[in-house]
Amino acid sequence: MQIGNTTMTKLSNGTVVTDLDANTDNENLTGQGYTVRHIETWHRDGSDEMFIVWDAPQITEADLPY
Asked: Which residues is 40 bridged to in the sheet?
């Protein structure tokens, strides 16, 4: 069951940002080879929101068509 924010933000450079508690999204990204760059805490309106910033998987020679 998805916990937390179900919205995922994907930037044009392949970086993805998810809610820290979005367990299903975070597990899927890990399974696809994404790695955690860092975790951010945003302080707004008297509450703290935590987000994971992911880096896209690295491309290897095996991924390139010949």
From this structure: 51
CA distance 53 to 61: 26
Tokens of 19: 């809610």
pLDDT at 1 over 50: no
Backbone dihedral region for residue 45 (phi beyond 0: left; psi -120 to 50: alpha; all else: beta):
left
Who contacts 60 (Cβ-Cβ below 8 Å, separation ≥6)?
none
Rounded-to-integer distance, Cα 22 and Cα 6, Å = 7
Q: What is the pLDDT of residues 46-55, one digit of tens each?
A: 888 899 999 9
Task: Provide the 3-class DSSP secondary structure of residue 23.
Answer: helix
